[in-house]
Model the fold of this input.
Amino acid sequence: MNFELSIKNEDTQISLEISNFRPENGELISVRFEEVMTLLSEIVSSDEAASKLSDVELTRLQPGLAALELKYKILLHQASQQATAAKSIAEGRSTISQHGFPEFDDV
Done:
């Protein structure tokens, strides 16, 4: 699926535009975007909560916050790898058994 993504950052508004996709893919892109927006909202919310901490509180909590941030960055990377694997399977370049699930392989 091909599309273009542009982000415009202005003072108090960030605009996202997804364009140049096939009309039949619009609903799927919207659904996937909603899934990612839920995640983005939670991450930004945690950043905002951390920004409200006093210096003393932030110093005390920083190791734990850093560990959690690293963990969700790893999970984001893993999700990206899984999406790449799913594309490879859909395109016939690999099978599900090559990605750790031989019980689902129909080849």
